Amino acid sequence: MTVKEYNRSVDEYADSVYRFIRADLKDEDRANDIVQDSYEKLWRHVAEIEYVVVKSWLFSTAYHAMIDIIRREKRMTSLEESNDADILFESQYTDLNEILHSALDRLPEQQRTSVLLRDYEGYSYKEIGEITGSSEAQVKINIYRGRIALKNFIGKIETVL
């Protein structure tokens, strides 16, 4: 990859990688750090990586860095018990974006990541498998289960609106 292609990858993919990581971590500073670290790693391997694979390489690198942070935090803190009352929603609430993000937060990590990559970023099942290190079949299962959980949480759209 040339320096010009590297700069083009920054222009084209940095925002997408940032949005993807921020959606999971909910922390803008850490998301920025992960994106910057991913581009630093890309720069170190710029001669070895072809431009055609740079997008999936960046998403995969950022995803694995995010997973490392999440695992490190889980070891440091104890997990809180989830309360079933938290799952209920108010029937007259109209902030659909907040409801959707609240529902996404309740999904297991693999399902949330797969749904975000598919529905928000538009990746194919194969690309998601490459990014997450899962088989294409497992990606499809994660997306299906995630969407069912989202549907069950949100309920009928008429209730939300």
Give the tags.
9 helices, 2 domains, Rna Polymerase Sigma Factor, Chain: A
Using only CA atoms, what is the Rg? 17 Å
SS content category: mainly alpha
Strand content: under 5%
The largest sheet is: none
CATH homologous superfamily classification of the largest domain = Winged helix-like DNA-binding domain superfamily/Winged helix DNA-binding domain
Low-confidence stretches at least 5 residues in length (pLDDT < 50)? Answer: 78-93
CATH architecture descriptor name of the largest domain:
Orthogonal Bundle
Shape: globular
Distance between the termini: 49 Å
**Could you give the order of the helices and strands?**
HHHHHHHHH
Continuous helix count: 9
Percent of residues in helical segments?
over 70%
Could you give the count of β-strands? 0
Average pLDDT confidence is 80
- The CATH topology of the largest domain is Arc Repressor Mutant, subunit A
